Amino acid sequence: MKVKLNDVNAYYLREYSQETENYLLRGEPGSDVLFLLCKESEEDHPEESEMLIRLIRAIGRDPERLAFVAVAKEDLPPYKLLKKDFSFAYMIAFGLQPSDLGLNIEAKGNEIVRMGERALLFTAGYKELEGKQESKAALWRSMQILFDLKKKK
After folding, report:
1. What region does 116 belong to: left with phi over 0, alpha with psi -120 to 50, or beta?
2. CA 13, 113, 102 angle in degrees (round to 5)?
3. Which end of the chain is flanked by fewer CB atoms within 10 Å, N or C?
4. What is this structure's pTM?
5. pLDDT in tens, 19-64
6. CB-based burial of residue 79 (10 Å sphere; 0-12 exposed, 13-18 middle, 19+ buried)?
């Protein structure tokens, strides 16, 4: 049976407002991993969902313990709100830079940034990863470090 992104705690945040610091959440935001996706449109891309499901399986996490936030770049909530609304220990941001979330830090692609008890990973967006084995391999190496997978195998 194929797992669809909608089957695993998918959120689409499109009612975020800087002034009110409110945005629409769907589902329960309790999770240890947050996937943050910068969407160019509201269209569903099944290939992107399949890639995320493969990543979930590769890191050995339960899909029920993950949260997905898919939002247009102009509607991105700041990091302080994501931190407040989600109980994540790890955040993987696809197609974003720290400054997009209001963070004043530098992070090269696939570099792990520690912020207190949280670890953040900023990587290429789906379009940049699609069909580029080198980019996918760099992401996988960072995820192995992030989730300490080398020791478990």
Report:
1. left
2. 45
3. N
4. 0.79
5. 434 333 433 456 788 888 887 666 656 677 777 778 888 888 776 6
6. buried
